[in-house]
């Protein structure tokens, strides 16, 4: 298999909140070779710097829909307090990525969850212990436990999300809008994890 | 509604006048109607709703694009798209059913003989996921080794044809043990004739469906619990 870079891969050893690189296993188009249609698919032109997005730009219509859905799911309503707070959307993304085993996605969204949620120790426990152990050990607050449990149930195949998860989430204060945000955030990472896990790999950045 | 969409896909007619707000695949699969509480909530995330639909249409009713529109090479046919969709949704059991119906119908029109082969692949590949062996050294204690599905071992390569068989094997990997994906899996796709653009499309198709089926499953639970609360 041809790889896109001669850079040596230094695989991360565990889930982490540290910054990781992502190296593509297939050759993405060069930024200067992107067609106008592919650039439109990137939504934000700056994404042309990123090999992951340049690779996905080979199917620009799907990339564009993916990116616009992603931005709405994670940002809309987060500032005006409608629906689930952003930190908890990121927590759902982290729990899903931890369950699927996507070390790269988990690193990005654990950073957001930890910074925005102001509870880095809970995020670190989730990363280090995994969903089941973190829940068993009582490493998470009641509200975060409910969110993580629901995200994990949605991530499994067959899908294990049921009325008991909705009841627990309502008990910790989620309304319909927040529930839909949770389902969307966790669901979206079933999509994202599979792309990032199967088209390339994470690497610890080399010290400059 | 979904039946309409699949007919236009098979005949190759461009879907130009479909108002996504009237033909939303997720709403149809969940049974959300205009005026439902969930309809209002979903419209509060209008972009997510519309773009989920746009992704579905880009994958299952792709518009010919630019100069490559007549080029067969690298494109993924409607037949393959619906067969892989039927397989992915089949791995999700009953949760996949409301979405699978349109793909089964489209596949029946495109290549009806394939349905039995895809369903045999679903039966042979189905198991609980996600599982697999980690690449990361520090996660070896969490490994959950499990079966690797290959159409060939199930005796299905001939019925599916080598390119589709490779696509279905890759779909099983992505759905059930995504943490095991490796460059060798992409080499298998390349060896079966799929180029980089087609691999991106197939990867998006499988991955998108694992999202779409979860949105449908989650919203269905919400829809059922809200209507119960209303009636009690």
TrEMBL record, chain A:
Q: Where is the Carboxymuconolactone decarboxylase-like domain?
A: 65-135
Source organism (scientific name)? Serinibacter salmoneus
SUPFAM superfamilies per the record?
AhpD-like
Listed A to Z, the keywords are:
Oxidoreductase, Peroxidase
Q: Which InterPro entries match?
A: AhpD-like, AhpD_Avi7169, AhpD_core, CMD-like, Uncharacterised_peroxidase-rel
MF terms (GO), sorted A to Z: peroxiredoxin activity
Output this protein's name. Alkylhydroperoxidase domain protein
From TrEMBL, chain B:
Q: Where are the annotated segments for Disordered?
A: 44-75
Q: Which InterPro entries match?
A: AhpD-like, CHP04029_CMD-like
The organism's superkingdom is given as: Bacteria
UniProt-recorded name of the protein: CMD domain protein
């Amino acid at each position: 298999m041809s790889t896109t870079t001669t850079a040596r891969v230094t695989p991360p050893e565990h889930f982490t909140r540290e910054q990781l690189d992502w190296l593509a296993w297939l050759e993405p188009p060069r930024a200067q070779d992107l067609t106008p249609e592919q650039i439109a698919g990137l939504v934000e032109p700056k994404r042309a710097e990123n090999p992951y997005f340049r690779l996905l730009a080979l199917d620009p219509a799907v990339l564009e829909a993916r990116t616009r859905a992603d931005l709405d799911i994670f940002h809309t309503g987060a500032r005006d307090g409608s629906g689930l707070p952003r930190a908890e959307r990121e927590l759902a993304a982290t729990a899903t990525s931890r369950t699927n085993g996507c070390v790269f996605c988990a690193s990005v969204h654990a950073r957001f969850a930890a910074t925005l949620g102001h509870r880095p120790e809970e995020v670190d426990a989730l990363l280090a212990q995994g969903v089941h152990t973190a829940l068993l050990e009582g490493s998470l607050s009641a509200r975060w436990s409910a969110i993580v449990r629901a995200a994990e149930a949605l991530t499994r195949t067959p899908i294990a999300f049921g009325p008991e998860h909705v009841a627990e989430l309502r008990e910790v204060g989620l309304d319909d809008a927040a529930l839909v945000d949770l389902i969307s955030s966790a669901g979206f990472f079933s999509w994202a994890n599979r792309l990032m896990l199967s088209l390339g790999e994470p690497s610890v950045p080399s010290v400059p | 509604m979904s039946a309409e969409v699949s007919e236009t896909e098979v005949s190759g007619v461009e879907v130009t006048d479909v108002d996504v707000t009237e033909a939303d695949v997720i709403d149809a699969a969940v049974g959300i109607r205009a005026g439902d509480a969930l309809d209002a909530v979903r419209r509060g995330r209008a972009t997510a709703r519309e773009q989920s639909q746009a992704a579905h249409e880009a994958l299952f009713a792709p518009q010919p694009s630019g100069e490559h529109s007549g080029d067969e090479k690298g494109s993924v046919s409607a037949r393959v798209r619906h067969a892989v969709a039927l397989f992915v949704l089949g791995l999700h059991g009953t949760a996949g059913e409301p979405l699978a119906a349109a793909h089964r119908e489209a596949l029946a029109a495109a290549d009806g003989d394939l349905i039995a082969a895809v369903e045999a692949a679903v039966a042979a590949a189905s198991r609980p996921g996600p599982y697999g062996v980690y690449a990361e050294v520090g996660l070896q204690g969490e490994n959950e080794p499990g079966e690797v599905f290959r159409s060939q071992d199930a005796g299905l390569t001939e019925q599916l044809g080598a390119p589709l068989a490779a696509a279905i094997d890759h779909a099983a990997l992505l759905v059930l043990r995504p943490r095991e994906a490796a460059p060798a899996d992409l080499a298998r796709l390349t060896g079966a004739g799929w180029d980089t653009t087609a691999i991106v499309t197939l990867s998006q198709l499988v991955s998108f469906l694992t999202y779409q089926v979860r949105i449908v499953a989650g919203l269905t639970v919400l829809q059922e619990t809200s209507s119960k609360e209303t009636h009690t």
